[in-house]
Amino acid sequence: MLDRHVRGRRTHYLAHRSPALPADDGEAHRDHRCNRSGAVRDAFGAHDVCAGGGDGRVCCPVLGCRLRTGAAHEGCAMKVCLCNNRFPPKVVGGTELIVYDLAVQLRDRGHDVSILTLSDSRAAETEVVDGLRVHSMPNTNIYNQFSHAVRSGLKKALFGALDTFNPFVFFYALRHLRRLDIDALCTNNLKGMGPAIWLAAWCLRIPVVHVLHDYWLLCPTSTMFRNGRACEQACQGCRTVSSPKAWFSRLVGHVVGVSNFVLERHRQQNFFGRARPCVIHNARQPFSAIPSTPTEPHKPFRVGFIGRTDATKGIREFFASAAAVHGGDLELHIAGRDNEQVLDALIAAHPDLAVVRYGFVAPKDFYPLVDIVVVTSMWNEPFGMVAFEPWEFFKPSIAFTSGGLPEVFSAFPELTVPRGDVAALGALIRRFVDDPVFYRDMARRCHAQRDHFLPPRQLQQFEAVLLAAARHDQRDAGVRAIEVERDTRS
């Protein structure tokens, strides 16, 4: 573990200067924080600092807090805080599981990992989840976003305004992060917490890595989906709301996109202009330690859909593509909550289709029941883990080219069709139904490609980025992430 003391070294050799946050580009060479915290000088490389046995840590007062100006170095464990607005066992989506997996792996690698998340009440909570210290900060916005109550437009507007910068979050995070004395902060989904977390870390000179899982920074709904269509760019209203967040994004030293699509979509809107960008695709642990074996397709052929049965997930397009198969011997299997109550109408509109409804089913229990999974997302999926999860069970998947989905299928572009082209998707389904040889070949190829989305690759890449952030090295992260990617492919 990194030493928590300076061991008598001179600040000239120990202090690393974190990236400046100028008021405008013309002042990019100035670091206004130096006037508050005392002179901070450029140091030699992190390897030189660590060669003497120290960790490059110097404490200086800022806003009544003690901050650290040093950083972790290669070969040593880091003290890292992962921040996300939800954390297991409270799960609303895939991000919580990704953050959990990353936290466990970093801990198992010897790093000191803590979790900062959001409570469902006005009170703070601290607990231990699978050996991880989880601190839930008070929920100080006007309502709890995770409850299922109906809210007026006014309440939603007030929530969004306070979420842009919540002073209660800022001061609470300032105190909490000061106590943690971490080397790097990795933020993920921040809805309900907001960019105030970044400002608190900046005041304490804690390097920030932000991971983009959705579009909340650009759009209050997090989906960039309106009137049944994906938004190609932020509308005027969203740009107005998001502009303060874009300014705060200059506090972030490294930004990670779960796909190149979601990363570029943010950079096009002037987010993270000062951050070092890189792409680390999502990864998931296997559902089972017991390897699956190939199976012959069912008769009738089972076409699966898993997820919310709403417009963003393309449930209508799923039915339309199945209808376009024209007489194929197939059966639709649908797993997911029907919150919008659309399934009955869709089934009635397609009386010739055999449909099996499951409601909510765990993915590991659903995938073995079907022969193929269809991903008809009409919104721009940031990445779409549902596209590669079935591969573990030798079940191919096919998808629209929405958002980051083409990056999942980079090895199988023939398994994607243009978004909304239900005729082409129906033809692709028909090929799987009619050609057992093609089905078996794609099942084996997809299963082999599943290894690319296992956590060890993701862990190595995140370690490289967090290490570079802790060393305040904005050039090192992207290079190391690329090197790790090459190593895992070789």
Keyphrases for this structure?
transferase; single chain; glycosyltransferase activity; 17 helices; Glycosyltransferase family 4 protein; Glyco_trans_4-like_N; 3 domains; Glyco_trans_1; 6-stranded parallel β-sheet; Rossmann fold; about 500 residues
Set down the secondary structure blueprint.
Layout: H1 11-14, H2 34-37, H3 46-51, E1 59-62, E2 65-68, E3 79-83, H4 94-108, E4 112-118, E5 125-129, E6 132-137, H5 153-164, H6 167-180, E7 184-187, H7 196-203, E8 208-212, E9 225-226, E10 229-230, H8 236-248, E11 254-257, H9 260-268, E12 276-279, E13 301-306, H10 315-323, E14 330-335, H11 343-349, E15 355-359, H12 363-366, E16 372-375, E17 397-400, H13 405-408, E18 416-417, H14 422-434, H15 436-449, H16 455-470, H17 476-489
Parallel strand pairs: 3-4, 3-7, 4-6, 7-8, 8-11, 11-12, 13-14, 13-16, 14-15, 16-17, 17-18
Antiparallel strand pairs: 1-2, 5-6, 9-10
GO molecular function: glycosyltransferase activity
Domain Glycosyl transferase family: 295-444
Biased composition (Basic residues): 1-15
Mean pLDDT: 84
CATH architecture of the largest domain: 3-Layer(aba) Sandwich
CATH level 4 superfamily of the largest domain: Glycogen Phosphorylase B
| Largest sheet composition | 8 strands, mixed
Beta-sheet strand percentage?
Answer: 15-25%
CATH class of the largest domain: Alpha Beta
Tally of individual helices: 17
Uncertain stretches? 1-74, 474-484
Strand order of the largest sheet: 5-6-4-3-7-8-11-12
Biased composition (Basic residues): 1-15
GO molecular function: glycosyltransferase activity
Keywords: Transferase
Organism: Paraburkholderia panacisoli
